[in-house]
Amino acid sequence: QVQLVESGGGLVQAGGSLRLSCAASGRTFSSYTMGWFRQAPGKEREFVAAVSWSGVTTYYIDSVKGRFTISKDNAKNTVYLQMNSLKPEDTAVYYCAAAYKRFGIKIDYDYWGQGTQVTVSS
Fold first, then answer.
1. DSSP assignment of the chain, as one string?
2. Phi/psi at 106 (nearest 5 deg)?
3. Which of 17, 34, 63, 121 is placed for a possible disulfide with 79 were both Cys, Cβ 3.0 to 4.6 Å?
4. CA 77 to the chain's CA centroid
5. Rg of the chain's alpha carbons, rounded to an integer?
């Protein structure tokens, strides 16, 4: 069982930055691919970024490439999402998720956090 707790959300002006954190419980964090997803009001949840269990390989959706950076610290059982040059369309609830020893664009995730709100004002 893995529990995920996100933090770092908030209100920021367009062009600003936020860093989301997701702290994981359990002793096998290094075996999990970690992903960030988001869900805007009235829209379906969408994949944002993922990092492989080793922390070496990453993947991003096109709309955040060059602005967001995902990273994984296996020693701290934490995954981060650094978000720069934020836009109003980035406003959403952001969720982290964990997938055991799977990596790819469309994989099933085993555990989910409760989400953290990110609001970008224009």
1. ---EEEE--EEEETT--EEEEEEE-SS-GGGEEEEEEEE-TTS--EEEEEE-TTS--EEE-GGGTTTEEEEEETTTTEEEEEE-S--GGG-EEEEEEEEET--SSS---SEE---EEEEEE-
2. -125, 90
3. 34
4. 14
5. 13
- For residue 52, the Cα-to-chain-centroid distance in whole angstroms is 12
Distance (Å, whole) CA 115 – CA 90: 14
Query: Going by C-beta distance under 8 Å and a sequence separation of 6 or more, which residues neighbour residue 107?
Result: 33, 99
Structure tokens, 112: 């989910």
